[in-house]
Structure formats: C-alpha cells, structure tokens
Amino acid sequence: DLLQFLYFIVMSVEGQNPASVTWQLRIVLALRCLKLAIPLTPVLIPWYQSVGISVEEVFWLASISSLVTVTCELPSGLVADTLGRSTTLSAAFVLLALSQVLLFGASYFSNPKMLVLIAAILRPLGSVLFSGTDTAIVHELTANSEAHHSHTTESTHIFTVLATESVVHVIGSALTSSHGMELAAMVSIVPPVVAAVLTFFIREVPKVQTNSWSESTRRSPSVETSDSKSSNDSDNGRLQFCVEIVMSVAPLALLNTLSFMSTSLCPLVWKSAGVDVAHFGLLTCSSLLSASIGSLYSPWFVAKVPSKYYCPVLAVGASVAYSLLSTCNIYLSVLGNLVLGLTRGVMWPLATSSINALVSDAHRVTALSMFCAVSKVSCMVLSPVVGYLVTHSGVETAAAVHALVGLAICAFSLINTTDIKRKVKLL
To answer: Between vectors from CA 191 to CA 207 and to CA 176, what angle results, nearest 5°?
Structure first.
C-alpha cells in the first residue's frame, strides 16, 4: 500500500495521473495537518518554565516571535512568488523541524535560553513561509478543475486541519500526563520532518497572468492603454488596484484580528469564571471543533447570505460571543467560546477565497501574506490595550470592549461600498 501511494504521488508530480489535482490537494492537506500536529503546543509554556524560562521571558519570546512574523510576512510572500511554491514549503518545514529539535535539546544544553530564543525565531520564520503559500497552491490547482472548487476545498481543508489540531492537543495532554513533557517534545520533531519530505512531491502550477496588477492597470479608465504610457500612470494604477483589494477584504481582516484576540482573552475569562485550569485544554479543543464545523459550512453560508451581509453577520456573531464571555459566567462563557469558534471557522475560508480571486497567480502569495501581516500588526497594537484593560478594569470590561469592536466592524462593513461577491466569483 505504501509503494502504491508513493507511485501515485510520483505519477501526480509528472502530470500523468488523471487524478493529479486530487493527489496534489491531498498532499497540501497533509502538510497543513502536519504543521499543526505538534503535541508540545498545549504545554509549551510549562515546557519553557521547565527549562528555566521565567514568566516575563515567556512574554518576551512571544513579542520576538510576533516581531519576526510581522517583519517577514511580506518578504516571505515575495519569496514564494519568486522561487516557487515547493521550494518555499520545503524551507518552511526545515525551519519548523529545526525549531522543534532546538526546543527538545534545550533540556540537555547548558544554556537552554539561547536554544529557546533561536527556536522562537525559526518557528515564526517557517510559519510565514508556509502561510499564504498553501492557500495559493490550492487556488491554482482548483482554478481550472471542474471536480474541485477553491472555496469548498478550503472549507474542507480547514475543517480537517482544525479537527486534527484538536485531536493532537488531546494527545499532547495525554503524553504529558503519562510520560512527561519530554516525550511530547521529542514526538513533536516527527511531523515537520515528514512534511519536509512530502514537499518534494508538490508540483509547480504554471502561473496564469489574469486579473493581475498590470492587467488591472490597463483596464483602468484613468490610465492610458497606449504603449507610451508613463511609469507614473502604471504605478498609480497598481496602487489603485492594491487599495481596491485592501478595501474589499478590510472588514474580514479586522474580523480576523478580533478572532485572534480570543487566544489570550478566553483563558483569562475561564479563570475568572472559575473553570479549572485542567479543563482549559478541553475548552480549546471544543473551540477548534466548533471552528472546524463552521469552516465546513462556509460554502453554505456564502450561498444563503447576500454578499453585502457577509461581514456584518459574522461581526455580529463575534460581538455576541464576546458579550457572552463578558458575563464571566461559566456556562455562558463556554457558549461564547463555541460561538466565537464557529464564527472564525466560517470567516477564514471566505477571506482567503476573496483574496485569491482578486489577484493574479504572480502576486497571490504576496497578497495573502499582506493580509496575514495586517492581522498580526493589528494584534500587536490591540494586545497592549487588552492587557491594560484586564489589569486596570478587569477581564469583563476587556471582553465587553471586544463586543463593541465587533459592532464597529459590522458598521464599517455596511458603510464600505466594495462588494466582495460582485468582484469575486465564490460560487
């Protein structure tokens, strides 16, 4: 069976297998699952502390990782568009594997803080090389396929990835409870190594220059189409096109940022509500499962909801979720956590499909990296504000402010005149 599987992969790479697109999509799905299949993740902070990293140093490591992510997000997109998808993915998983090796070796090294610091830099470097590249591959594979649709494929993939991540969190907790964190750290090396091998079977899809920046410039009525047009006119056309893309997905980007903030806020709400710390992993798992269900029904949401109400409905859902969290009632906070996961699951495939359809193959990963970078920058800006609110006004106030931000995003998306579905053929 293994030889047959490898045979079909090789035939897929050579383009001789009629089901090559199917096999390529399966490989991408495997890579996505392997990237998040890290059993050490649920106990990463306790692992840091076990090798001598203080609580203050843990937050510094998080800041360094965020800085690396924001700094390298756009260059990573340019690298993927220039060097190719397969090469970029290979480099990504090599970096991720090295980061896991360093984390495992930190407990045996005389200066563990140095290894942990290097790992904290390598891990976001690998992540930014991966982010956007995988989504671009899926869109390019499904662009000319009658059997596969980009948005439906993304939804199915996200469902599978989130379900896998939730299961791995449970496995990581079980390994830690039975054999200690050291075994979880050692096992975490395997997934990125396997993924690095799989990246060699990714087939490069020829880039088609459709709806590109240059083509959009030629179609723009404000820019001359003659061969003698000036470079300034071309630059203005490209800038106009970029602004149009940003305005089209801006509400979704803000909503994405709002969902990211739940990562740090939800544990504080659970603790304030009296939830036992031992149950945090289970609540995180339930949120991921809720998000996976939301991603599975994202195409249904697109089909049933008018395009101009995509963002308002999702923003209201996030606002309701944070309103439930702001009560700090144990049952309502758990319900709010599930609603927020459902909203996040529906939103992510919608956002990526929108960006994919608005740009050409030559600039796709760059655009997706810009979207991720904007979200990360927004998180970096909001995190100190949330920390200040939690410290001085309480976690209830911080959650309530998040609910108000959700309503503000709803209002902004209604005012924004750019219709995503008018420009993007999602159905």
So the answer is: 145
- Asked if 119 and 58 touch (Cβ cutoff 8 Å), the reply is no
> Tokens 């927020």 identify what position?
340
CA distance 380 to 361: 30
Report whether 208 contacts 142 (CB < 8 A): no
Q: Which ranges constitute the DSSP H helices of 274-329?
A: 280-296, 298-304, 310-326
User: Pick from 265, 309, 267: which is nearest to 403 by CA?
Assistant: 265
* Cα torsion 289, 293, 296, 299: sign: negative
Is the pTM higher than 0.70? no
Can you tell me the distance from the alpha carbon of 268 to that of 274, in angstroms, rounded to the nearest whole number? Answer: 10
> What single letter denotes the amino acid at residue 426?
L
List Cα–Cα distances, 62 to 78, 99, 184, in angstroms.
25, 15, 21
| Residue 59 pLDDT level (bands cut at 50, 70, 90) | low
Q: What is the pLDDT of residue 219?
A: 38
Angle at 292 between CA 291 and CA 294, to 5 degrees: 60
pLDDT of residue 7 exceeding 60, the answer is: no
Which of 263, 324, 313 has its CA nearest to residue 414?
313
Q: Give the Cα separation of 338 and 396 in Å (integer).
A: 18
| pLDDT tens track for 98-141 | 999 998 888 888 788 888 889 889 998 898 888 778 877 887 78
Q: 32 Cβ partners below 8 Å, 6+ apart?
A: 134, 157, 160, 161
Query: What distance in Å separates the CA atoms of residue 99 and residue 68, rounded to the nearest whole number?
Result: 14
CB 127 within 8 A of CB 76: no
Pairs from 142-146 (Cβ < 8 Å, separation ≥ 24):
142/21, 142/25, 143/208, 145/21
Distance CA 289, CA 79 (A): 33
CA dist., res. 398 & res. 388, Å (int): 9
